[in-house]
Design goal:
mainly alpha; Potassium Channel Kv1.1, Chain A; 2 domains; 3-stranded mixed β-sheet; 14 helices; 3 strands; elongated
């Protein structure tokens, strides 16, 4: 891609993004990084679809867009290869693309370059937003779809990605690893996904502090977030301790009044010990 063409794209995106900042504050910072060629693009490189099966599936689905048909009126040029798409469909799903397509310089254009993007990623994006396909969000494409969904302002795609990650955390079988929980918390912070933030925050607060501390990404979170996680965990443990102590006092009183014959000196009877143990196990499960 020629430098002046890439510069023209960046200028267009930056201009449109600035116009939308007042209405879509949650998108501004990630998009500006992407438009300026910053760390957002690095994250896209990191999160690109690399699974062999997914690559093959993307190749199969790309055939939907590799030839012109009665519905296509625009060619997206990605890595020098054309993708035939509908201007109307993309305008409906993406306010950013709509603004680009309807600008005075682009409204009559039949070929639109997407510099700095990868062909497989854009094919995957199209498959996830086209109404006749609506490909499922998976572990293999969620990172890329979050990045492109945020960049192009596709709210529904962001919601699908968030829902996938939330369900993955809530499923809990097998229990998510510390790295997965912290990764979800980082994603929630980066894209302003409140439901995912709450779910991942609660999961992190129930994890041993040592496990969290061994995850490098945890320390890359804002200080207020890491502090809040530890405070929340402390409160959960304090509440657990309070309930167990309350149960011990309650059972001790009951046992001294009604189980005198079963007690050995001042200790509790076997049944009352078991009752306390059951309560302790139940409460500890709530913080683990």
């Amino acid at each position: 891609m020629e430098y002046d063409e890439l510069e023209r794209w960046d200028d267009q995106v930056l201009k449109l993004k600035e116009e939308r900042i007042s209405k879509m504050d949650s998108y501004s910072e990630p998009f500006m990084r992407s438009a300026a060629g910053g760390d957002h693009i690095d994250k896209t490189e990191k999160g690109r679809i690399s699974n062999g099966a997914s690559m093959k599936e993307s190749d199969d689905l790309s055939r939907t867009f590799d030839q012109s048909n009665e519905a296509s009126d625009l060619r997206l040029i990605v890595e020098g290869k054309p993708l035939y798409v509908s201007r109307i469909v993309l305008s409906l799903v993406s306010p950013v693309l709509k603004s680009l397509f309807t600008s005075s310089e682009s409204e009559d254009t039949v070929e639109f370059p997407l510099p700095g993007k990868h062909y497989e990623d854009i094919v995957e994006f199209l498959c996830c937003v086209y109404p006749n396909i609506l490909k499922t969000i998976t572990d293999n494409n969620v990172d890329v779809m979050l990045q492109l969904g945020d960049e192009f302002g596709v709210k529904k795609l962001m919601e699908k990605c968030e829902d996938f990650l939330v369900r993955k955390l809530e499923k809990g079988n097998p229990r998510p690893r510390p790295e997965e929980i912290i990764n979800c918390l980082c994603i929630a912070e980066r894209y302003g996904l409140e439901t995912l933030r709450k779910t991942s925050f609660d999961s992190a607060a129930k994890m041993e502090s040592e496990l969290l501390e061994n995850v490098q990404e945890f320390w890359e979170l804002p200080n207020v977030t890491t502090t809040s996680v530890f405070i929340r965990r402390l409160k959960l443990l304090e509440n657990c301790d309070k309930k167990i102590r309350s149960k011990i006092n309650e059972v001790n009183t009951h046992c001294s009044l009604y189980h005198k014959g079963e007690r050995s000196t001042d200790t509790l009877c076997t049944k009352c010990f078991a009752c306390i143990g059951k309560t302790a196990v139940s409460e500890l499960k709530q913080v683990m």
